[in-house]
Amino acid sequence: MAITINPRATWGQYAPWYLQKHASDPPEASKNPAWHGDRGVFLHYLGPGSTADLRTEEDCRKEIAEVYLQHKTEGQFEGDIAYNYLVCQHGHIYEGRGEQRGEGNGGEADPIDGRGRNEGFYSILGMIRSDDVASEAMLRAIRDLIGHLRHHVNPHTGKTAGNRILPHSFGYDTDCPGNLHMYARPGSTIDPSVPWRAPADIYVHRTQKWVNETYDKAPGYVICSETGYTGWNTVLALTQGLQHELGISPTVQTFGPGTFNAVKKRRVMPDRESNDNLLRLYNGALWCKGYWASPFLFGWGEDSQSSLQQLYGDMGLNYGTVQQSEAMWPHVLKSLLRMDQFRLVPGGDPHIRAIQQRLNSRYVQDIGIPAMSLVPCDGIYSRDVQQGLMMAIQYELGIALESINGYFVPGHRPPSRDGVRGPSRVICATSSVPRATSTHRHTRQTDRRRTCRRTSAPMPRPVRTWSGCSRSSGSRRSPSRATTTTRPGHSSSCPPETSPGTPPAATASRRSPPSAGGCSRPTATTSSGVTWTSISRRGTRATSARHSSRASRRPSWTPG
Question: Do 34 and 154 belong together in one domain?
Answer without folding.
Answer: yes
